[in-house]
Amino acid sequence: IFPTETYYGLGANAFSPAAVKKVYEIKKRDRSKPLTIVAADMKAAISYAEHLPRVFYELARQFWPGPLTFVVRARPLFPAEMLGEGGTIALRVPGISWLRGFLADLGVRTFRETFEDQVTPANLQLFLDSAYGEALQQAELADPTRPGLVLELAGRPVGFAQLRLGHQEPCVTGTRPVELQRIYVLREAQGHRCGAALMAAAMDLARGWGADQIWLGVWEHNAKALAFYARWGFREVGEHHFTIGDQVDRDLVLAKDLA
Questions:
Q1: Helix (H) or strand (E) run with residue 73 in it
Q2: Which of 208, 230, 242, 246 could form a disulfide with 16 if both were Cys (CB 3.0 to 4.6 A apart)?
Q3: Model confidence pTM above 0.90
Q4: 116-128: string of b/e by CB count within 10 Å (b at 16+)?
């Protein structure tokens, strides 16, 4: 649930048929009334649509971010549950600048907790400075090929996952693969099946995009993570290097076919 200028919104993954259906069920909303897609900024909104008229750009520059919703023709990215008559979607860019800082802070906290015992403080800080920050998260929010998920426990954000669509290592053989680029849970929330909830949601998101395979990289000595991924049916298909500061680690590349 998040605020906009005119209402509190119930947010879900617009690329996942299951998530969209769940919103309709919770709100008891008529299926003939399509849901609105909330975009991070104008660039992200444009990437979701096609055949946009000149008046769209004129009005969007004048009123976005703000309480204005456009109904436009959708690109072939979304499940049928998100589409209105004629393959349209409703787009809005509200004033949600707080979200960029929120995601940056959560990313730093979860990464630090996961790797602070494995790298030097200097190398860890170098990596965090290069991978997390409000400007970086703003760019990722605006990138439609990098959808993310935030997990809450008792109303508090405790984990997140991020996918990267259309990216693969040479050892990944899927024809339409998705990378699970990040999946982290705060230490305080571990043991409550938060990781399982994030993984299930990430797989739903990948399937909603039409992926036939999901893959990831994991440090070869991270026994806990390797056991977790094995339980989810991931198998080793290759390796690559992962750099944290001036430390270079060997990561295993794991993949799982999506039915």
A1: strand 69-73
A2: 208
A3: no
A4: eeebeeebbebbb
More confident site: 114 or 220: 220
Question: Do 15 and 205 contact (CB within 8 A), yes or no?
Answer: yes
For residue 6, what is the DSSP state? Answer: S
255 — pLDDT class (breaks 50, 70, 90): very high
Give, to the nearest 10 degrees, the angle between helix 134-141 and helix 98-115.
110
CA distances from 196 to 62, 126, 199, 225 (A): 43, 30, 5, 12
Over residues 197-226, the mean pLDDT reads 90
Mean pLDDT of the chain: 84
E strands, 119-246, are 148-153, 156-165, 177-185, 213-219, 235-244
Q: Which residues pair with 74 in a beta bridge?
A: 49
Q: Is 20 helix (H, G, I), strand (E, B) or coil?
A: helix
CB under 8 Å to 139, separation ≥6 — which residues?
A: none
